[in-house]
Fold each of these.
Amino acid sequence: MTTLLDKLTGALVVSCQAEPGLPLDRPDHIAALAASAVLGGATAVRIQGAPNIRAVRAAVAVPVIGLVKVVRPGTDVYITPTFDDIDAVVEAGAHIVAFDATDRLRPVDVPALVARVRAWNRLSMADVSTVAEGRAAYAAGADVVGTTMAGYTPTTRNDGGPDFTLMIELARAGVPFVAEGRVRTPEEAARCLELGARFVVVGGAITRPDVITRRFADHIKVAAPRPAAREVHQ
Ligand SMILES: CC(=O)N[C@H](C=O)[C@@H](O)[C@H](O)[C@H](O)COP(=O)(O)O
């Protein structure tokens, strides 16, 4: 298992996910996204949902970080929150199981989730939003800690880019971490590794064409010629 983490050192991992109801939200489309990412140099992929994990395992040979997103009453924790969710991710074929390890009201505590993943002989990735959560997850035995949840909890800030401050704090605390969340450019991905990330996970900037298109559409609106200017050239 250590060799899997060694293999991922310095790697680009691509998160291939589609919001429910979007055109790409089908296992065959997610598998095609994953295969494209691998062609482009992804060392591993991060995949949401058991049917998608199965389709991706059948399509590519790289390691899969698996998770399920489930909204349950009484908790804001939605990434692989329970034992059943962990079991479903493992049974679908994930090599690494990602789960929310934020300090919020949760159905199952983080040490118990870590132990469940370990009992399956898989690696755990604890998605956190603060350095305190990172320390706690690492102390509980998580194999890696991801900055995934930074900016998505009430107490953390989302300024549209990666949370470099959290990465610096995790590195200083000696917590092995993975950079994930709002990495928009190759330069930002390289910066994450310079700050000590073991590997970097990029999602939307590569695999969400609707979001990428929106960035272009919004940006060029500013530069688009106004009707009067067009009439002059007609
Ligand atoms: C907060 C949360 O639920 N993050 C999810 C975790 O799996 C995904 O929706 C993100 O796309 C993923 O973390 C990659 O991030 P980005 O797409 O920003 O590169």
Amino acid sequence: MEYFKHMKRLGEALFELLSEALGLQPDHLNSIGCSKGCSTVTHYYPPCPQPELTLGVRKHADAGILTVLLQNHMGGLQVLHDSQWFDVHPTRGGLVINVGDLLQVLSNNKFKSVKHRAVSSHVGPRISVACFFSGHASLLDKPFGPIKKLISEANPPRYEEFLLKEYFAKFFASSLDTKPPIDYYKL
Ligand SMILES: O=C(O)CCC(=O)C(=O)O
Ligand SMILES: [Fe+2]
């Protein structure tokens, strides 16, 4: 419980910084509910006898707005950059912050969601705790798209508006092998 209180506060602070980085008022992303709707998934990856035959989690970008990830000392998380996989080495007391597909939409592609995966290992277990910020429930029924203040003639919208509830319905009906729901709304 204590951890989630801290996650909520951290989320608010991160969304302030991200708003400023977009050239918006510091409270912009918080005021539209970005730091709400935080859900948590804990992963337990046991030691794997044949790690070369499998992956812990396949390549994907997180579907929500922002993810705060805590991993134990085992390592295994990798991010894709310029078509190459890079290890995200665990740092004691460190957290990994991943931009999700919905922040890519809100920022009209200024922030790019990060493709990542978790590889298996002979040793373990590896444990990770992901807090997914997916936005306040009241956003589900409202049109969602790039922030209007970020749109101009020089920077036209890269996504059409859509309903988050339809987006999440697509997400929950999909697998990591199918195209991510964000792709349906690209302009
Ligand atoms: O276990 C990890 O480090 C990654 C988990 C992950 O990518 C996810 O839950 O979306
Ligand atoms: Fe992920």
